[in-house]
Specification:
10 strands, alpha+beta, 5-stranded antiparallel β-sheet, 22% strand, 252 residues, disordered C terminus, globular
Length: 252
């Protein structure tokens, strides 16, 4: 009788983590940013039917990078959890923190189980508050850990470089057009340092807008509205550059 091949638990977990990270890295990156009136989700997605961003509940949004079938199952489970909890107790009892804990338990159980492969997904759960101070953004990697984020977060293929770019440029109180422009600029960055152009039709954009009079704050931004916001962001950047040139001329 042959002796079974032994792999230490540490090595087995490291191999599973590397497998999941490689799967996530093959997908396109996405970013989630706070702006003055809420939270904006921006990602490159050529498909009009398979969404990276979705509404979970009244003030809660969901974003995911990685394998679509795996994060779609998680999204559906999150919607069922939120609907059941809101119906059983109260709508205010459905929170991003509670949903993030549920996702963390699910991802952690799958990651530590030797009977099945780890999920190749990375999630973001966001909740818009009555004020910017009340906004909540949680990032959940493949192993089920929870990271409390503030301001901006990137997940997916080139997330580390994009996060560094956003950390240096994101500011509190940005307008939606400014935040959208910054998000597109960050997604346009290539790993080798170059830039590429992402046309509006390849962008998926959604917001949690605290100023909406409806109870449900999630809204997709498409078509002409998206084009106007992109133009407005570019116009504001051009105006700032013109102002800097004018100041330089005055100094001379």
């Amino acid at each position: 009788m042959s002796t079974p091949f032994y792999v230490s638990p540490q090595q087995a977990m490291a191999d599973r983590a590397e497998y999941a990270r490689k799967g996530i890295a093959r997908g396109r990156s996405l970013v989630v940013l706070q702006y003055a009136d809420g939270i904006v989700f921006v990602g490159e997605n050529p498909s009009r039917a398979l969404h990276k961003f979705s509404e979970i509940y009244d003030r809660i949004g969901f974003a995911a990078a990685g394998k679509y079938n795996e994060y779609e199952n998680l999204r559906i489970g999150g919607v069922r959890y939120a609907d059941l909890r809101g119906y059983t107790y109260d709508r205010d009892d459905v929170t991003a923190r509670g949903l993030a804990n549920v996702y963390a338990q699910t991802l952690g159980t799958i990651f530590s189980s030797a009977a099945e492969k780890p999920y190749e997904v990375e999630l973001v759960v966001a909740e818009v508050g009555e004020t910017p101070e009340g906004d909540q953004i949680y990032r959940l990697p493949h192993d089920g850990s929870i990271v409390d984020e503030h301001g901006s977060v990137a997940v997916g293929g080139n997330a580390e470089q994009i996060s560094s770019y956003l950390d240096q440029r994101h500011q509190d109180g940005m307008s939606l057009a400014e935040a959208l422009k910054l998000a597109v600029q960050s997604l346009s960055r290539e790993p080798n340092g170059g830039e590429r152009e992402i046309p509006a039709e390849r962008l998926e954009v959604a917001v949690l807008d605290r100023t909406r009079p409806q109870q449900r704050k999630f809204k997709r931004i498409v078509g002409r509205q998206l084009a106007r916001l992109l133009e407005a962001g570019g116009a504001s950047t051009a105006t700032e550059a013109e102002a800097e040139d004018a100041d330089a001329d005055d100094e001379e």
